[in-house]
Amino acid sequence: MSELLTERPPFTEPHVAPRQWEYVRDALENGKLDGNGPYTKQAAAVVRRVTGAAEALLTPSCTHALEMAAIALDIEPGDEVIVPAFSYAPTACAFALRGAKLVFVDSHPDTLNVRADHIAAAVTDRTKAIVVLHYAGVPCEMDPIMAVAREHGLPVVEDSAQAFGSTYRGRPTGSFGRFAALSFHATKNVHCAKGGALLVNDPADIDRAKIIQDRGTDRHHYFQGLVKEYQWVDLGSSSMLNELLAALLAAQLETFDEVQARRGHWWNTYDATLPGWARDNGVATPYIPAHTNHSAHLYYLVLPTEDAKDALLDHLARRGLTATIHYLALHDTPAGRRFGRRGPGGCAVAEALPRRLIRLPMHVGMAADYQRRVIEAITDFRP
Ligand SMILES: *Cc1c(COP(=O)(O)O)cnc(C)c1O
């Protein structure tokens, strides 16, 4: 009997790139360990090429990148920041850390991405920024969102943690906002164990972003010979990715096209086999707007009720298969209540749909046989 039938395979497994050991060893031997070495430059060049960003600063996580954006936008106590109710804690926490009051806005029921009309309704004269999340790597409706931002003169920050490689009307996600944040966490398509990047789209922001990344010092001016000594000039933190992890990331990025193709294959296989069963049983599958390309980061199902979602998770577990839930609405959390409020449109979709959502196992090295078993188990299930 196959091992697959007796062991419960992991929900996700980090991708292994062929040259990652070689690059990490080389970085260790080179001795420039703290960051901004040759592997950082190599990885950042790929990130810029994929996203079209003016600058890509590699960070220890996506969370660090969001926190840098909040500092760069001079968010202060009393400011309001509009954030998606359906998102991950750091999307909101990075701005609450600066003292902002969060205003949570709802999602479209089809993509679970934040709605431009709810953003528009949430703008007040204290609003300082708009944050969006490209859920599952499916781009938000950036044209109407950017129109609202332009009308009110507000900067946009894209949480692009799941959307590296996605495009909206042919343009990369992460290139619309003044800043965007990427994640290279082990669960993401390409990774360096834990890492991220701040994308800077306005060249005028690059210098200060580098200061914020380097403990609030102008050390990069010193390295360029622009100043005789470097000093503390601004707010900042220690937010540079170290060179060992940059080496791992550089090796991973060399396999980016292959990673995307393989994830795309798993994603398309789910999407070719599940919708018939889904329609018959009142289950929703991901909706991909025709004018977008997505990163195949995750495949999810929205069951008709929360009980049906729990029953499907149990059903899969009994067959030795792992599926998992995702974010619950942020405004309904202890910190969300403390640091924010719902926008005027309410958050009905973010309150209801995530409680009925499960994510299916998907990673680059997943076995076809395993995916077949997942699909068979799901299509045997009646909510
Ligand atoms: C993964 C993820 C993050 C956090 O990434 P880290 O690199 O772990 O900080 C933030 N936002 C979203 C939407 C994510 O999926």
Automatic annotation (TrEMBL):
Q: Can you tell me where the transmembrane regions are?
A: none
* Residue ranges the record marks as coiled coil: none
Q: Name one GO biological process term.
A: polysaccharide biosynthetic process
Q: Which residues are reported to carry the modification N6-(pyridoxal phosphate)lysine?
A: K188
UniProt keyword terms in alphabetical order: Pyridoxal phosphate
- Co-factor requirement: pyridoxal 5'-phosphate
The organism's superkingdom is given as Bacteria
Give any Pfam family that matches. Answer: DegT_DnrJ_EryC1
Say yes or no: keyword Manganese present: no
This entry's Gene Ontology molecular function terms read: dTDP-4-amino-4,6-dideoxygalactose transaminase activity; pyridoxal phosphate binding
Family matches, as SUPFAM superfamilies = PLP-dependent transferases
Q: Where is the active site?
A: K188 (proton acceptor)
Family in the record: Belongs to the DegT/DnrJ/EryC1 family.
Q: What is this protein called?
A: dTDP-4-amino-4,6-dideoxy-D-glucose transaminase
Which species is this UniProt entry from? Answer: Actinokineospora globicatena
